[in-house]
Design brief:
This protein has helices at 20-24, 33-40, 47-58, 75-81, 83-91, 115-126, 212-217; strands spanning 154-157, 162-164, 171-177, 185-193, 200-208, 227-230, 241-246, 259-263, 268-275, 282-284, 287-293, 299-300, 302-307, 312-313, 317-327, 331-332, 335-347, 352-360, 366-372, 389-392, 396-405, 420-421, 432-441. The chain folds into three domains: 31-136, no CATH class; 146-298, Jelly Rolls; 302-441, Jelly Rolls. It has seven helices and 23 strands.
């Protein structure tokens, strides 16, 4: 596909941590009377009857021993200890880090809380954090140890143990790995086990068929081996594509059996690891699992970019709206085609407030593909529909985004605010939707 985004550099999700500025920002919870009415019908709110199930289903996959979250929410004692923080983070919709609103497309791993659940957690924190009957507490969920998708077909890892200093800003390191394959290979998905959960924040696997990563590893920002440092989440060049990504609490979902991403022999994988500093010198050797289709699949999946590089965000103005339309051609090489979307990843920077992508079909009907509210640069995720989304050729993808370039934005990177345009640095801005999709010829 010759989409506009082919000209635009690949963007990486930049996930972060809960900050003081975030906690102190104005609450975004918009409660309606219905949750309050439901709470009023509950005489006593307890951990056993009301709270444990919410935390077990939405929080402990990250907030448990041995995971990246800074504290555990397993069990009553931990929930009580952090009850006030839970109430604040959920009421501001900072946690769980799930920004997609319920809509026309259902996503896997949906961790959003309802208004009723948020009100329940806040009421529990404010009413004495009662435990209730211990024997009524639901059992904590069981999690799969090791690879969630089973034994990988290829197990790749950083070529050596990498050391990260104790203090300073986050670091993005890129490690060049050459898979041992001798023929065209079709990737159905990836997964990651971080080598050091104290410092590995997220991981993205990119592809490079031209050896550009190897040159950077030997250059000024390289370590002279197979690694090099980059800034702002980029890998230093426009990669050929990506195989997948990982963030705490999520694992890579496999494509359907009839779909795959082509990996040619000699293609390098650029494994980018985002590191947080822990306050002490740490080491890491993260592993990447690759899952393959044993036969050539029917559908060749590629990563495509819908982007508006012409944004100009004026200083000292909130609620600035931008819109950009991208048509999906009805024909390719003289044949009518349709499209199938496997995942979506919206991307903005620090001034972003919300982003919405809508499919306008040829019959003028509309389907909201994804609608993100309360955008947080620190928590960008890849959203995978439960069922791939099919769109007819001739559909228009409409991307809408809102920005706040005022001093009231707690993430404002400039003092004073200034005109902000498209750029790769975190202090620049972007309006981008990344999607894994395939083109399907009509019969």
């Amino acid at each position: 596909m010759n989409l506009t985004a082919k000209l635009i550099s690949t963007i990486v999700p930049s996930l972060g941590i809960l900050t003081i500025a975030t906690l102190n920002s104005p609450t975004t919870l918009q409660q309606d009377p219905q949750p309050a009415a439901k709470l009023a019908s509950i005489r006593v709110i307890t951990y056993a009857d009301n709270v444990a199930e919410i935390l077990n289903n939405n929080c402990v996959k990250c907030h448990r021993e041995g995971q990246n979250a800074p504290f555990s929410l397993e069990g009553y004692a931990n929930a009580k200890r952090y009850s006030n923080m839970i109430a604040v983070a959920t009421s501001k919709r900072i946690m769980p880090p799930w920004k997609a609103q319920p809509g026309d497309v259902e996503f896997r791993d949906d961790a959003h809380l309802t208004d009723e659940q948020i009100a329940m957690l806040e009421a529990w924190a404010n009413s004495g954090t009662l435990r209730g009957e211990k024997d009524k507490e639901p059992k904590p969920p069981k999690f799969v140890d090791g690879w969630a998708n089973g034994k990988p077909d290829l197990l790749l890892k950083m070529p050596y143990t990498h050391e990260i200093s104790a203090e300073g800003e986050d670091e993005y390191w890129n490690f060049v790995i050459t898979p041992d394959i001798t023929e065209p290979t079709w990737v159905s998905g990836t997964d990651v086990i971080p080598g050091n959960k104290n410092i590995v924040h997220h991981v993205i696997a990119y592809t490079d068929s031209k050896g550009r990563g190897r040159k950077l590893a030997q250059g000024e920002k390289g370590d002279g081996k197979s690694g090099y440092r980059s800034s702002g989440g980029g890998v230093g060049f426009n990669p050929d594509g990506a195989l997948g990504g990982w963030a705490p609490g999520a694992h890579g979902h496999l494509l359907p059996k009839d779909a795959g991403i082509l990996l040619e022999p000699g293609t390098d994988i650029i494994l980018q690891v985002h590191y947080n500093k822990s306050g002490k010198v740490e080491t890491d050797q993260t592993q990447l699992a690759v899952y393959l289709n044993k036969a050539k699949p029917e559908h060749n999946v590629s990563l495509e970019f819908l982007a508006n590089p012409f944004i100009r965000i004026q200083p000292n103005k909130a609620d600035q709206h931008f819109k950009f339309d991208m048509p999906l051609p009805a024909t390719q090489q003289g044949k009518k085609v349709n499209y199938r979307i496997y995942n979506l990843m919206p991307h903005m920077h620090l001034l972003g407030q919300s982003m919405k992508a809508t499919a306008i079909l040829p019959d003028k009907s509309q389907k909201v593909l994804i609608d993100l509210k309360n955008w947080d640069f620190n928590w960008q995720l890849i959203y995978t529909p439960i069922k791939p989304v099919d769109l007819p050729g001739g559909t228009i993808i409409r991307l809408e985004a809102i920005y706040d370039n005022t001093v009231d934005n707690p993430f404002q990177p400039h003092d004073p605010p200034k005109l902000t345009t498209w750029g790769e640095e975190t202090t620049d801005e972007m309006m981008l939707l990344v999607s894994a999709l395939t083109v399907i010829p009509q019969e």
